[in-house]
Amino acid sequence: MPVSGKRTQSALVETTPKRLLSHQLTFKNALRLPIIIWQALFFIAPLIFMVAMSFFIVRNYRMTEAFEMKNWLKMMGRDYFWDSYGLTIGLATLATLVVMTVAFPAAYTLAFKVSENTRRWAVFLLIIPFFTSYLVRIFSWYVILAESGVINAMLGYIGLGPYIMLNTKFGTIVGYMTLTLPLVIILQTLSLANIDRSLVEAAHNLGCRPWRTVFRIVLPLARTGLIIAAVFCFILSFGDFVSPYYLGGSKPPTLPILIVDTVKSGQQWPRAAVVAVVMMVTLFIVAFGGIAAAYRRRVR
Amino acid sequence: MTDSLVEFDSVVKKFGDFTAVERMNFTIDEGEFVAIMGPSGCGKTTTLRMLAGLEQPSEGEVRMQGRVMNAVPAHERDTPLVWQSLALFPFLNARENVEFGLQMRGVDAATRRKRALDWLDRLEIGEFAERDISSLSGGQKQRVALARSLVTEPKILLLDEPLSALDANLVIRMQSMLTRLQRELGITFVYVTHSQSEAFAMADRVVIMSRGRIAQIGTPKDIYRAPDNRFVAEFVGRNNIISGKIKSSSGKSVLINGSLGDFKVSLGGRAKPSPGDEGSFVIAADLVHLSSKKPRAGNQIECSLISEEFIGSVVTLFLEARDGSEFKVQIQERELADMDLKHTGKVFVSWDPERAHYIGAD
User: Considering Cα of A198, then A200, then A201, then A207, what sign does the dihedral take?
Assistant: First the structure.
């Protein structure tokens, strides 16, 4: 009978997707599992261990499990720790400001003034620096910045210098820029290129001069991407060991250098853990604050 | 020509090898509602953008009130444009969007707030002044965009397909609002659209463009009833175009011999075809008389009914003539119901020679 035939059909139609759905769900969960396990094993667990370790104590150059505030009180009570903390934040902030400012005109040009093809090539070229080791790129600055290096040789021709650039804060900033500038230009370019052109034209149309348009329209529209770029720049600079060590001369030490020094002097892993926890907390605050600002709905 | 607000003088616009606008000449008067209409890629938006200063002409001059505007940058013109996407600033609320143009002109905060609120009230969205753009409906956004453009009291308003994203009901309401606004303000509206119903419903004059050239300029009625050429006849309305050779010409009318027989066509004025020439004429689908019996004399074609398209009170019938060509007839739905055509299959279309419109060879 046609009627009952129809019924069985609709019953089939009803049951099959449900079964499929549950299969799909298990499949989806199975796919999620590796990343969850990975994160738990190699991120969450070490993090917890590091926090725990900051309460351990070292006896006879051997770390012993304990729960004492000694390391925290010791580190927090030392001026050199706070000097180092201030220096690291200061340098990372300065690097972020400089990099964001230097990158913006480049990103603006790539986003608005060149063809899409040129932009693609530029982004590709900006990725190339990441092909070589960061350490190698930092060492190459020796040739350029040294007292008898390229820059001083050129300045010498016009009777200037020599200037000391290695082992200074300037050197550290140059190193930070080497690390972050290409990435920041890429991030800025992408966020600027996504801006709806008609909004920029609408601003012109309503009497907004080109320069003013950059501040009134382009920056607010690209806010999310720009803040994320700045956060990345700060995080990378703040945690960098190589630049302040090799180009900045490691004195005074930034927090990453302080970690290495602390570990080297008497196997003080717990105190190094204190520094690391402070760094983590600082970066968490910066990242959360940055992302909150980036996605806040309106700016007044 | 003191009255003309805008003049396009042999304007050419090229993008690389592509010519978007080709030798355009026309003027727009003060207080006129002009619609520029054409298929996509015909250069209508480029024309509008040249008026706004967002594109510079490659050749020729665009003048406003006699002043050559070619080199005047967009931000120094007072030619607000309403974008198809509306281009409202998402990080400002409705009132702040409206205030933007005033702020750029250095109007103080209190005055611009008052003027913005006045305009929002006038467009009946005063209560949404402090709302985020993203929380407004399509029609409300439309009104914010209009207020933002009109708040600076410009002499001209440019509109680039502003209604294309709205649903049909809202389009009709916005159309009547726009025409009312334009009459009240007495300023010039230049309205770009691909929609015939929008252009004809609102504009005093319609400019039809095709491949960067002006195909015809005229009142909606002129363009509808007296298309200048085949492009306009095909683009506008429901027209039947019949071509053939001129058999004889009396000055006032011609006899055109086509594959479906001889047809008498009265001549409007300009065209003076002579016997032997190729010629075409247009007979609008709604000017055709339909009958199931063969008319005694006059222009007529025997057809068979292929399909019908019902759009409310009017029905379009698609007929096929002996030679396979399509013929369209528009009649009232109730007329059709009285006629009872279907079972006969054969129908006769006929028309008054006065109603046919001669358009020359192309």
Answer: positive
Residue A72 lies in a domain: no
A61 assigned to some structural domain: no
Q: Are residues A103 and A202 in the same domain?
A: yes
Q: Give the B window 54-93 contacts with A, CB below 8 Å.
A: 54, 73-76, 78-81, 83, 85, 87-91, 93
Strand partners, B301: B349
Closest-CA residue of A relative to B50 is A205
The residue segments making up the domain with residue A91 are 78-294
Q: Look at residue A104 and tell me if it is in a domain.
A: yes
Task: Kindly state whether residue A63 falls inside one of the protein's structural domains.
Answer: no
A100 plus A226 within the same structural domain: yes
Q: What is the ipTM of this complex?
A: 0.84
B80 contacts A221? CB cut-off 8 A: no
Q: pTM here? A: 0.81
Q: Residue A177's Cα: distance from chain center in Å?
A: 12
Cα separation, B140 vs B133, whole angstroms: 9
Residue A216: which CATH number? Answer: 1.10.3720.10
Sheet holding B299-310, edge to edge: B289-291, B346-351, B299-310, B314-321, B326-332
Q: How far is B3 from chain A (nearest CA, A)?
A: 25
What is the number of domains present in chain A? 2
Which residues from A are below 8 Å from B91, CB to CB? Answer: 220-221, 223, 298-299
Helix axis angle for A169-193 and A134-145, nearest 10°, is: 120
CA distance B210 to chain A (A): 25
| Shortest Cα distance, chain B CAs vs residue A175, angstroms | 36
Write out chain A's pLDDT in tens, 300 residues.
344 444 444 444 455 566 666 777 777 788 888 899 999 999 999 999 999 999 998 888 788 888 888 989 998 999 999 999 999 999 999 999 999 999 999 999 999 999 999 999 999 999 999 999 999 999 999 899 988 889 999 999 998 878 899 999 999 999 999 999 999 999 999 999 999 999 999 999 999 999 999 999 999 999 999 999 999 999 999 999 999 999 998 888 999 999 999 988 878 899 999 999 999 999 999 999 999 998 886 544
Tokens in use for B305? Answer: 């009914």
Q: Nearest-CA residue of chain B relative to A224?
A: B91
